[in-house]
């Protein structure tokens, strides 16, 4: 029986307690805690247990996801200390380009390979089929920072692989938005016979505007933060800055992820001993990760899996191949150490929030039937990804010798 939608605090308490025990169980089986949170969320799914009403999941997740993704983006920016990243700059750039375009190309090929299994409305018209391939290919470039950051913090990972990973993830969202903007521009031309100028401008505005808000926010709020102050005070000021920058970015249609990432980048590089400021965030990060991943996985719908499994699995496999091969080629070309290019591809597999955001940008140029198919397939791919990827990320970091919980 579903809980009343008017009991959000009870639901949040239930999720946190369930997440605690699920995380303990995951650690017992040598899996990252995020895997436990995902499993807990699947159990709460309306299509499996019906414990929580779908309306309540949507309401809570819409709020929690904004906070979690903004917090995570800020943490990613805070990991990009110039003195650490400078020596790996060339490696990060080449790997980012290679794995991004690799994911795009391989996903397009994977969708083409399963074309005969798709609804006739997609594959019977050549322009529609090409547009669908381009749109899904553009979406596949994105990497979810949430899962990656959760595992890095849990393992206290530090080293060349972790530094490169954080740099690539930080650039991934920007690259994804740019590739998707190009893909959807071509799709608009094929489907509508003309290029939608609003779509073209959206990518540019999203990136430039977000960077501007983040840089300005960072240079303003750096004067309020001080590592020598009480952690509670810094935490209050930091969350206030993150919320303000996120809200301002969303209001103007910019990307809150990029804005917070650049604000974190400014803070870490302009304040002495700024590492202490970011370590003070550890006190709340596990709560945020638990709520975010549990509620995300609770969206799982068995009916969606049944109707869109083929396309969803094709997206998953194509993206995996592209990320792995692209990372290997980019790392080899940039002469990265084997420790980096042999393990980094696996750590770039997580996928979630940005991918769902991008698919909705394609809604105006697609028919309702085709959009529903693509959205369902994307959900299948993301849910399977959330189950498979976290253990692989933990394994790759441990294999590279950067798991500091075992020392």
Number of helices: 19
Rg, nearest Å: 21 Å
Distance between the termini: 46 Å
Oligomer: single chain
Shape: globular
Helical content class: over 70%
What's the total count of β strands?
Answer: 0
Question: Taking all residues together, what is the mean pLDDT?
Answer: 81
Q: Low-confidence runs (pLDDT<50, min 5 residues)?
A: none
Summarize the main sheet: none
- Give the class from helix and strand content and strand pairing: mainly alpha
Order of helices and strands: HHHHHHHHHHHHHHHHHHH
Strand content: under 5%
Structural description of this entry:
By secondary structure, the protein is mostly helical. 77% of the residues lie in helices and 0% in strands. The chain has 19 helices and no strands. It has helices at residues 8-28, 33-44, 54-78, 82-85, 89-113, 120-123, 126-139, 145-155, 160-192, 197-221, 231-251, 256-270, 274-279, 282-297, 302-333, 338-341, 344-347, 353-361, 368-399. The longest helix is centred in the middle third of the chain and has 33 residues, at 160-192. It is globular and about 65 Å long. 50% of the residues are buried. The model has no long low-confidence stretch (mean pLDDT 81).
């Amino acid at each position: 029986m579903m809980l009343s939608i008017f009991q959000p605090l009870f639901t949040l308490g239930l999720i946190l307690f369930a997440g605690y025990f699920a995380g303990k169980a995951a650690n017992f089986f040598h899996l990252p805690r995020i895997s436990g949170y995902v499993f807990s969320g699947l159990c709460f799914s309306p299509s499996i247990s019906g414990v929580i009403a779908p309306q309540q999941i949507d309401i809570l997740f819409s709020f929690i996801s904004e906070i979690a993704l903004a917090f995570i983006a800020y943490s990613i920016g805070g990991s990009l200390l110039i003195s650490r990243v400078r020596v790996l700059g060339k490696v990060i750039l080449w790997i980012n380009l290679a794995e991004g375009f690799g994911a795009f190309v391989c996903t397009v090929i994977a969708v083409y390979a399963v074309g005969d299994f798709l609804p006739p409305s997609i594959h019977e018209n050549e322009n529609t089929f090409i547009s669908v391939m381009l749109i899904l290919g553009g979406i596949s470039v994105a990497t979810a920072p949430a899962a990656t950051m959760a595992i890095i913090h849990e393992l206290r990972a530090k080293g060349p692989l972790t530094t490169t990973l954080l740099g690539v993830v930080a650039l991934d969202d920007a690259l994804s938005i740019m590739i998707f903007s190009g893909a959807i521009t071509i799709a608009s031309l094929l489907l509508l016979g003309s290029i939608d100028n609003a779509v073209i401008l959206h990518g540019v505005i999203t990136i430039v505007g977000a960077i501007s808000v983040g840089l300005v926010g960072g240079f303003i709020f750096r004067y309020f933060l001080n590592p020598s102050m009480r952690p509670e005070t810094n935490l209050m000021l930091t969350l206030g800055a993150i919320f303000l920058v996120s809200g301002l970015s969303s209001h103007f249609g910019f990307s809150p992820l990029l804005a917070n990432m650049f604000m974190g980048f400014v803070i870490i590089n302009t304040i002495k001993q700024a590492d202490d400021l970011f370590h003070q965030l550890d006190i709340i990060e596990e709560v945020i990760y638990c709520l975010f991943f549990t509620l995300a996985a609770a969206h799982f719908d068995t009916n969606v899996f049944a109707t869109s499994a083929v396309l969803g699995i094709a997206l998953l496999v194509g993206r995996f191949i592209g990320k792995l091969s692209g990372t290997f080629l980019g790392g080899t070309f940039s002469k990265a150490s084997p420790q980096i290019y042999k393990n980094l591809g696996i750590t770039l597999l997580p996928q979630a929030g940005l991918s769902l955001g991008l698919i909705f940008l394609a809604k105006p140029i697609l028919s309702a039937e085709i959009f529903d198919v693509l959205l369902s397939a994307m959900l299948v791919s993301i849910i399977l990804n959330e189950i498979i990827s976290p253990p692989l990320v933990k394994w790759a970091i441990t294999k590279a010798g950067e798991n500091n919980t075992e020392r």
